[in-house]
Amino acid sequence: MCGIVGLVSTSPVNQQVYDALALLQHRGQDSTGIATAEGRVLHMAKAKGQVREAYRTRDMRSLLGTMGLGHVRYATRGSASSEEEAQPFYVNAPYGIILVHNGNLTNTRELTRELFEIDRRHLNTSSDTELLVNVLAHELQAQVTGSDLDPDQVFAAISRVHERVEGSYAAIALIAGHGMLAFRDPFGIRPLVLGRRSAGLTGYEWVVASESLVLEAGGYETVREVAPGEAVFITVGGEMISRQCAANPRLVPCSFEYVYLARPDSIMNGISVYEARLRLGDRLADTIARYTPMGDIDVVMPIPDSSRPAAMQVAQKLGIPYREGFYKNRYVGRTFIMPGQETRKKSVKQKLNAMSSEFAGKNILIVDDSIVRGTTSREIVEMARAAGANKVTFTSAAPPVRYPHVYGINMPTRRELIAHGRKIPEINTELGSDHLIYQEVEDMQAAIIEGSDVTELEMSCFTGEYVTGTVTPEYLRWVEENQLS
Ligand SMILES: O=P(O)(O)OC[C@H]1O[C@H](OP(=O)(O)OP(=O)(O)O)[C@H](O)[C@@H]1O
Ligand SMILES: NC(=O)CC[C@H](N)C(=O)O
Ligand SMILES: [Mg+2]
Q: What GO molecular function annotations does the UniProt record carry, in alphabetical order (predicted)?
């Protein structure tokens, strides 16, 4: 996952894009980039690291214009440390297009071949986003006839993008001198929400972003989600035109957004992330009650930050005291989205510390939102024991992650996943806990979609069922052999 934002405004957008990216930081910490359009001129600044350290005053001063976009990257293809692969990606024809992307393409081998052999396009990195912007540019070039750009031509190009590209993509592009284009893959796997605020007599200022909290913070009203397969084109003058461009759109949003990725104060596809996490806690409590004699547990504890709402609900429903026994160092970022296992492992220790007073002689029920590689949970069990815990029951508000995630979350190899090919008692032994309880898949799905219009969720990392056709066993093997560097 990455965080993306795009703005069409009536005043300079540089600071607004920066502020939005700071709010989306939890979606990617590898690198960041901002681009703006000042008439036909495009400006761009990108750098490694987090938003607050990446930009200098001179970068911000150079980002002129009233239309802009931004990106925070959590790499899933190519290299996490490459500055060339930081987004946005730029192509100079037609018009000058600059694009940001959240997601992961699954037919990159075919696209690379086609772009090189048929479309005669140069690719300079191994980023899938570079493929996406080149397919878009090629298809737009095939539509345009003069210097004017008709929205019909843009929508026809997006229809072709949907035909050629497989995988997940929520994307925003600036087309120099013309407008901003936002589009989402035909399954709407990754999120994208549209908002606006009044610009007085001149109409509206527009925003598209990965998460609704960006809209709220900027004083925008939510118009709606960009629909799966839909493209939204906003002209430089602030006119919004949209069209469904996919043959068979079907909303299947990523379940992992609700489990871990998104901020709890966002509303995604009409579902409050916070409330979904509370419901995950409710259902988990029912499962725990089925397996554990309640007299056995003294306290319920979250692993900060993401599991807090679920843990609170588990405690309340089971009628057991809720305690925060792990103190979190607020200056360490999210561990799971850091690149490299060594860094992740070291960061868990730097991030969390167990307070002995909360553990000594007690039977602890620990709640995490998910167990993926087991990096966090292994360390946590060890810390709890070292702090004097008597019995450690470990619980996860998500089911076992047994299969690779190929739609924008970096968990591409089976052998990395602690639950792959292991039964729950074996995972329990691996973690060193006394007892291990997971959410059931059906309960996770029901907890997330309850009360919403969403009927399906992308849950491949829990079920091994992939919505896009290209994810074959051969593809998964190839991904394992060609991991992110
Ligand atoms: O099994 P693992 O591979 O360790 O991954 C799962 C853990 O990683 C995430 O925490 P993270 O520290 O990234 O972020 P958080 O502060 O939002 O919980 C998640 O909340 C789990 O705690
Ligand atoms: N997590 C993402 O959305 C990553 C976007 C893109 N695949 C990249 O690696 O840069
Ligand atoms: Mg966590």
A: amidophosphoribosyltransferase activity; magnesium ion binding
